Amino acid sequence: MKRLRNVKIVATLGPASSDYEMIRALFEAGADVFRLNMSHGSHEEQAARYEIIRRIEKETGRPIGVLADLQGPKLRVGVFGTGPVELAEGQAFRFDLDPAPGDETRVQLPHPEIFQVLEPGAHLLVNDGKIRLRVEECDKQSARAIVEVGGTISDRKGVNVPDVVLPLAALSEKDREDLEFACDLGVDWLALSFVQRPKDVEEARDLARGRAAILSKIEKPAAVMAFDDILKVSDGIMVARGDLGVELPVESVPPIQKRLVRACRSAGKPVIVATQMLESMIESPVPTRAEVSDVATAIYEGTDAVMLSAESAAGKYPVEAVRTMNNVAIEVESDPNYREIIEAARKIDRKSVADGIVSAAREIAETTDIKVICCFTQSGTTALRAARERPSVPIIALTPLIDTARRLCLSWGVNCVQSGEVERFKMAVVAAARAARESGLAGERDQIVVTAGVPFNIPGTTNILRVAPCDERLIFSSDPE
Q: Residues 434-452: pLDDT tens digits?
């Protein structure tokens, strides 16, 4: 199952992709990580999908990452007594805490936290931003607004409040239950919705207790403003362009995406570009040219992963969507301009011996006839450093810990291999050579670079590098260590 690309593909599972045959087909088409969307489906359904993923992992001998995406708090209006209401531009309309059914003049907004922070001039967006209102007057129980963009408003439509930081926790009671379920299930990543500030991430980390890595979804203006601090406390980032495009001017989303991807690359933390990447493939077997360009742009930027949502979860052509994304990635990465762009954007602040080791490994690989960089890692940090360098040769991460191997499935260019425990560096080199050959990334006559930390099995001790042959006989006939 050797991948012919470095960028990873995340495929969301759902009604269209819940049985063994379909999930296996998605994996074979190119999916590296599967997303379980906790907004839809019962715990029993998600557990069944998880078990199928682990069955495929066992059958193929290749680690597979699983990401559980938490729903986050949902802000919605109440109900209307006379059915849907048409709001016209310039009309006054009131939101309040009164549970009485709404009409053409008002509706309940059952979230007192919103009224606590609203100010005149702030905007309320309804139904994914299709309706836009500007607050004229407000107090702790209501807000009078003027319709700037009209449309039809109906029962329980979603509300976005882009201009203020809401005093809401990123984790609802449902999210807390889903988080515990997902961690007990054994997922590798938790995607956290509604992130506004670093403490939202820290709360999720405290609840996860190391059972899963934390990936922050950047989908609100407040998260963009506080991004540097959020990145510091996160294990990874998802650029959720769909929600950003609702709460921010759509023209601001591409530069934000580029800036966030570069910051993640510099920090050596995985970043996913997500939402509406091949959306037309929900109904069509062929994507639009614009969608292909969108996927290609994210890959040229050096993102770690691109994600399919409804395309693979509920669309008519889930396998074709994954295959299309896989083919676009292969084509982009074979473009000579791709390497030029990736190398020009390499900006790394190297501060440690480990940073120097992985940087040297990349430079040696790129200036000599080296086929693979092999990293021995406990926590995954060494492999993340190697991926941050974006080398022109494949990376093999060898680890005795299956949890580490699965989490690294999200990282650019990393081929994950669960290895046995090693105590001597020579045996590590032998294991690396064997993995390089068995993966098809190197032949017996080729050379590899091996990095490791001695003593072994202690995180954060990367301190040794060796250029070695893939022929085990030559390894054993060389100097003792």
A: 999 999 999 999 999 999 8
DSSP conformation class of 2: -
End-to-end C-alpha distance for the chain, whole angstroms: 33
Q: Is 217 a catalytic residue?
A: yes
Q: What is the Cα–Cα distance from 91 to 103, expressed in whole angstroms? A: 13
Catalytic hit among 5, 8, 12, 35: 35
Active-site position among 8, 106, 132, 217: 217
> Is 399 one of the annotated active-site residues of the chain?
no
**In which region does residue 128 sit, left (phi positive, over 0), alpha (psi from -120 to 50) or beta (all else)?**
left
Q: Single out the catalytic residue among 3, 74, 76, 434.
A: 76
> Domain extents for the chain?
8-72+170-335, 85-160, 353-477
> Could you confirm whether domain 85-160 is CATH 2.40.33.10?
yes
Q: CA–CA distance from 224 to each of 59, 263, 309, 321 (Å)?
A: 41, 12, 22, 29
Where residue 478 falls among pLDDT bands split at 50, 70, 90?
low
- Phi and psi for 70 in degrees, rounded to 5? -75, 145
Residue 5 designated active-site: no
Instruction: List, for residues 276-305, the tens digit of each pLDDT value.
Output: 999 999 999 999 999 999 999 999 999 999
At position 52, the amino acid (one-letter code) is I
With H, G, I as helix, E, B as strand and everything else as coil, classify residue 132: strand
Q: Which of 275, 382, 451, 462 is catalytic?
A: 275
For this structure, is 339 an active site residue?
no
Give the other-Cβ count within 10 Å of 207's Cβ.
Answer: 17
What distance in Å separates the CA atoms of residue 51 and residue 45, rounded to the nearest whole number?
Answer: 10
Of the candidates 325, 383, 276, the residue with the CA atom closest to the CA atom of residue 7: 325
β-pair partners for 190 = 68, 214
CATH number for 353-477 (one of 2.30.40.10, 3.40.1380.20, 3.30.1330.40, 3.60.15.10): it is 3.40.1380.20
Specify the CATH superfamily of domain 8-72+170-335: Phosphoenolpyruvate-binding domains (3.20.20.60)
Say if strands 462-469 and 414-418 run parallel, antiparallel, or are unpaired: unpaired
Mean pLDDT for the chain overall: 94
Question: In this structure, are strands 106-108 and 131-138 parallel, antiparallel, or unpaired?
Answer: unpaired
CA 65/CA 177 separation, integer angstroms: 21
- Between helix 198-208 and helix 173-185 the angle, nearest 10°, is 50
Using pLDDT thresholds of 50, 70 and 90, give the confidence band for residue 424: confident
CA distance 111 to 141: 9
